[in-house]
Amino acid sequence: MDCTTSPSYSNRLLDSLPEEDRKRFLADCEIVDLAFGRKLAEPGETISYAFFPIDCLVSLIATLESGGRLEVSMAGNEGMVGFPLMLGAEKSSLQAVVQGAGAALRMSSACFQDHLERSPALERLMKRYLNVLMSQISQSAACAHYHSLEARTARWLLMTHDRTRGDELRITHEFLSGMLGVRRAGVTLAAKALQRRGLIDYQRGRITVHDRPGLEAASCRCYATDRKTYGQMIERLA
Amino acid sequence: MDCTTSPSYSNRLLDSLPEEDRKRFLADCEIVDLAFGRKLAEPGETISYAFFPIDCLVSLIATLESGGRLEVSMAGNEGMVGFPLMLGAEKSSLQAVVQGAGAALRMSSACFQDHLERSPALERLMKRYLNVLMSQISQSAACAHYHSLEARTARWLLMTHDRTRGDELRITHEFLSGMLGVRRAGVTLAAKALQRRGLIDYQRGRITVHDRPGLEAASCRCYATDRKTYGQMIERLA
DNA sequence: CTGTTTATGTACAGCACCGTACCGACTGAA
DNA sequence: TTCAGTCGGTACGGTGCTGTACATAAACAG
Fold first, then answer.
1. What number is the average pLDDT over the span B72-99?
2. Which CATH number fits domain A7-142: 3.40.50.11030, 2.60.120.10, 3.30.1050.10, 3.90.226.10?
3. CB A96 within 8 Å of CB A50
4. Searching chain B, which residue's CA lies closest to the CA of residue A129?
5. A7-142 and A148-219, same CATH topology
6. A5–chain B nearest CA distance, Å
7. Residues in chain B closer than 8 A to A133 (CB atoms)
8. pLDDT number for residue A2
9. CA of A89 to nearest chain B CA: how many angstroms apart?
10. pLDDT in tens, chain A (238 residues)
11. Which of A144, B88, B145, B208 is deepest in the core (most CB within 10 A)?
């Protein structure tokens, strides 16, 4: 399939490239379907591809030797997976897991690095995105340390909702607990509290967002801060 | 003072540059003395300089709107302060505070960005350092969430010890509590536990490291992981 | 030497998690 | 239609912090 023609099969980050650069870039991409749970990167392992989500959603997870896991960022249509490739590193330090199945544009590591060298606009864009990532990861660090599980759950739902079509998110409490680094039972309590307030509804593997403004009020300010950072660094490119 | 001649007034990161590039870089630096507590960057504020610590020590701190603060990385002689300058950003998202007084090389933002464009070796080096930072910040996120205060205290002391001449660290429990995002009283308990084990000793504003191997055993593996990452990304440049 | 400031020691109730465990309910495959 | 597997609801005691408070001790300025 020719990725250069169909604008619906695109990625918001790449969309902000100049037409010329964008076309050249897309010509070297292929579209892949990513199933839920697929690992796009593992800590310590070589990165083979850069991914630009179209309608899938990927979690970036920090892992500890002791086994602990904590989601530190998310990449959907507004982002990409494989930032170490911009930094002269072959290996990933984070784990990247497909959290929402869907399509993505994929480019081999070597090819991506080649494009980075040839397209100053791409290089600039990727650097700005990297700065957004830095801010988000730092924010997540402090957020996980200070904020209540309920607020963090609300934040996570909002972030996922932003990167998903429709109001229904297909995830289990178990999965969410893995992202937030807490017990499954803890998520159930938090979710129930949000449900009782009429902000969400859920049944067996799906959570439905009913009241976004309410969720925003229930979430910590980290959500708003992240959006603001992205807006300032990426959208205000024009 | 001419920074190009005296090798003792240098910075380990810059030392790994090719002689040529290094000299040109140092020629545009000035040496400044940084007092304890001085803020080199504030979240949301414009960055005026890049700093390359000679014998001072700087903490990078994530701040929350709600007031919470958490140290996410540290820059001593092995690092630098002002990474957003490499990423096309003018503003800092983190706070940078001088945690150990001392000297640093300083270069204006514009000049630094100029050097980045002219010296591919510098660009490569800075990118690799950025990757180290990313790993460390992610690690800190999970560490603060999962590990005990005692282990985190040990880790912090080791990291600071690595970046300090001698075994005596001049910090109060109060300050440390700010970095770790906990109560002052909590740090006192952790410090006392480490002291009772004979790993450290302390009195009013100074902590002395007595048993490094012991401290390493008491710390979480995050300390070792961080060192390994730095070694792989920076030292193995040669 | 005195009074002030700063640093550390200690205590206590409170709370948000933890690990674990078990049950019921839903789902999908046989 | 039954059964196995998955998911969510709930409960228990335990623990590592929290916020607060107050006392002691060292450092310092006068």
1. 97
2. 2.60.120.10
3. no
4. B87
5. no
6. 30
7. 134
8. 44
9. 7
10. 444 444 467 999 999 999 999 999 999 999 999 999 999 999 999 999 999 999 999 999 999 999 999 999 999 999 999 999 999 999 999 999 999 999 999 999 999 999 999 999 999 999 999 999 999 999 999 999 999 999 999 999 999 999 999 999 999 999 999 999 999 999 999 999 999 999 999 999 999 999 999 999 999 999 999 999 999 999 876 5
11. A144
Smallest CA–C1' separation from B202, nucleotide: C8
Residues paired with B41 in a beta bridge: B96
Q: What is the residue extent of each domain of chain B?
A: 7-142, 148-219
* Helix/strand number for chain A, H first, E second: 9, 10
CATH 1.10.260.40 fits B148-219, yes or no: no
Nucleotide nearest to B184 (CA to C1'): C8
Measured between alpha carbons, how far apart are the two ends of chain A, in Å? 29
